[in-house]
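A common beginner's mistake is to predict each chain separately and then try to dock the pieces by hand. The better habit, illustrated here, is to supply every component at once so that their relative placement is modeled jointly.
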Amino acid sequence: MAGTEERTDIMAVIFVLISFSLLVALIFLAFFIWSVRSGQYEDQYTPSVRILFDDKKEKPIKHTNKNNKE
Amino acid sequence: MALETFRYDNRVVRKFAVATVTWGIIGFLVGLTIAIKLFAPKFLGYIPELTFGRLRPLHTNAVIFAFAGNAIFLGVYYSLPRLLKTPMYSKLLSNINFWGWQLIIVGAVITLPLGFTTSKEYAELEWPIDIAIAVVWIIFGWNMIASILKRREKHLYVAIWFYLATFITVAVLHVVNSLEIPVTLFKSYPIYAGVQDALVQWWYGHNAVAFFLTTPFLGIMYYFIPKASNRPIYSYRLSIIHFWALIFIYIWAGPHHLLYTALPWWAQSLGTVFSIMLIAPSWGGMLNGLLTLRGAWDTVRESPVLKFLVVGVTAYGMATFEGPMMSLKNVNAITHYTDYVIGHVHTGALLWNGGLSFAILYFIIPKIYDTELWSKKLANYHFWFATLGALFYVIPMYFAGITEGLMWKEFTPQGFLLYPNFLETVRQVIPMYMIRAFGGTMFITGAVLMVINLYKTARQGTFVPEVEDSAYPLVKKAEARGTTPFHRWLESKPVMFSTLTLIAILIGGLVEFLPTALIKSNVPTIASVKPYTPLELQGRDIYIREGCNNCHSQMIRPFRSETERYGEYSKPGEFVYDHPFLWGSKRTGPDLQRVGGKYPDSWHFMHMKDPTSTSPGSIMPAFTWLYTQNLDTSTTEAKIRVMQDLGVPYPQGYDKVANADLEKQAASIANDLKTNGFDADKNKEIIAVIAYLQRLGTDIKASEHKTASTGNSRSGSATTAGMN
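With all components supplied together, the output reads:
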């Protein structure tokens, strides 16, 4: 029986999985490079505060409400 | 540049909220049903559609994809537009996303109890539904990415990164793991076999937990903890590091589900190392969530939303510490295949996924109905029911798991197994199963209180279908340089286009390349390992239909305690014709890898009709319908042909004569049973199941076991010689 050959043969799929894992990692790496270059992380304070404010501007539109009784 | 006014759509948010609650209750109830069946097997009678083996996949699919899945969409469709300052890209796509997803779930609710399953955990749905999942998921991603491209907020808040990672990774995982060749409308065989199928499955299974039950919920955490406490996240910088570290490490940890199996050891070690590394980003994220509340813990006392968020994030911390510990080989040796794993996943599922889902429901429903929560007190009751219920669930499971792990390994001073009868270890943990069902009942009771509370909240408020907001449009660099809208169009479309193209190419390439590449590697590597006979193949598919793999493993680890109990440990070459692999992940019953030849046919015949007749105290269901239903042999030809396409070496033209062989083998088994005084009919399904069980693990046993094949499981390690 082919000892070592058998081992690599039977696990061929691991290379497929590693390729796909690397592919996903590369997609993320591209996103990461884009995000750093486009200045996504230049400001590390205001984004965290800004999300707290949007509700105050929200105004419910009562007059278009057709589903009042639901 | 003028201020732009736009409206967020609350209708789709409400739809996802209703779906989350509805499927949640259903998924929990199915879970409770199967929990009860573990200590009261006769509960609900022996109805095929309601057996443990068929309902367990329904439970996992319902809570993961229906409950948590709808909760993810709920969180995304609420927070994403508000973070991007734009409505979702398309209401039509939002609605296709919603209705498509619900149809998939309905498909699961119908097909799984009917026994249409691929047997691969959390990917049990058959091929037509797999295609539907891929389509709906792409539509979700399309809607999300197109919204991001239309945004009026330059900065992508960290939650959005988590949502994006969820979409991309789940798409790839689902497609790679679901490659299968259809036999009939609801039956397919995966293109991978044995070890390879196992590795793909757990690469998928692990990352499904990572990218379906973790990253989207972290996105939800990063949006809703600050919103509910009205304070910014503790450290935005940490959240960014958390995200990038987590997604780069997570995808390599999958092999920890296959420690001590036939997987190469370097791959096992890789999985362990990355699992340990995961503690750092996971705990960074947990602490970031909890520290947001520093100096504001008094608000937690007042807010049910924050209570659920805090307990959820704490449970996340516990589960993400426990997971890496269970990836250590010495711990895994005890916890794997036991109820410890069930405890571990429910710490995550009940409190982290459940807790966060409940939190956002309590947050969003009052908001979209422009009112306050109907009863804070009732929500607090829910909180305690859920938290205590989860503790009453997980603690007995941890206790049971360690008990099982240790009892299976216990030897007498003379070197014999102290508990050679597997049933002793089952009976020992039955009280734990009872306490677990009690905990589950508490958890569901809490969820019912939530339904009442949310319903009353909706009744007292007025639904706000759309919410107006305003923001300045995003100044693009190109625009600043004085280009036309056409250029903007050109700028955004290629991103979409290339993403979709990439996905299309991936799928196409996979379909082209994988089968040929893998079939070559499925050539027999152990000469004595032969393809299943047609009858055995049909029996194997009944084994899959009945979900036997939910309670029985077929993977003997190389421990003396296991080789003593079950026989020679499993070799990778034994599984080359197993489409799909059936290693299992839990031993509620004993391993079956070497059950072939261990008992006479008549034992199996009696055992499956009434398990207690051969094994007093057994909690296995009685599979009475196998004795009345005729084996469907019309599929044999197609099955053999698909197997041939997958590289299983049946002789040319064997599909035409397969049924003749099948009849012959069935008649011989039935005759053998008749001579022993059993009323056996060769056309019934039970004959095929017996044929399959008697074949299991005998290929490498046959060569050296001719002398001791009957009734002897204590073959020990002396059998290794037979392989070489």
